[in-house]
Known about the structure:
Serine Threonine Protein Phosphatase 5, Tetratricopeptide repeat, 2 domains, two-stranded antiparallel ribbon, two-stranded parallel sheet, 4 strands
Amino acid sequence: xxxxxxxxxxxxxxxxxxxxxxxxxxxxxxxxxxxxxxxxxxxxxxxxxxxxxxxxxxxxxxxxxxxxxxxxxxxxxxxxxxxxxxxxxxxxxxxxxxxxxxxxxxxxxxxxxxxxxxxxxxxxxxxxxxxxxxxxxxxxxxxxxxxxxxxxxxxxxxxxxxxxxxxxxxxxxxxxxxxxxxxxxxxxxxxxxxxxxxxxxxxxxxxxxxxxxxxxxxxxxxxxxxxxxxxxxxxxxxxxxxxxxxxxxxxxxxxxxxxxxxxxx
Length: 265
């Protein structure tokens, strides 16, 4: 089962998800409480086996806020983050009900909501589980944001073209430009993430939601410059139109409904 989990992780790893690997090797190792069968616990989570996980908690083998070494997190990750990554709705709901920390982060500051918003399954049903995980976490009170100068759930959804999750997060009030200030940011905004990947529909959604195309990474690029760098010619005109608008003008009205931007790549 651990090999199966690794394969599931690998199928969705792109440039951003390489961040997941910096916390250690992709195997299971690290320090944890004596007597814990780590592989068994990880399998309970991956298989969405609530009774077995509950039994481990009730017996005192682990706590609901336990951190265990796992694929991509050899230094340890919270159970709730691992459940969110797997889209294991039953386990996730159990951990939330049992009082797990909704915002418990991985060693690289990824919250459970970020992982639910980033990962998706092998098919439509599996992806729907991750969308449900996003809703479950938000409804339970998980933060829509992150610590300063860190990626956000919205940024992760934008990078991996998770449009349903992105719409949901925007509807719940996620900050479209994260913690950018005075048009400067220390880390890529959601719009930049979508531009890097060439996700045209995500770019449109974010611009319609009021994303500021003139935000720049300190010492780096704007979203349009990222689109240029990665040769996403179908993205650049959308952002260029948004850049040209005077303050207060509506992107949807002036760019999408006008003749200034082609509607097809």
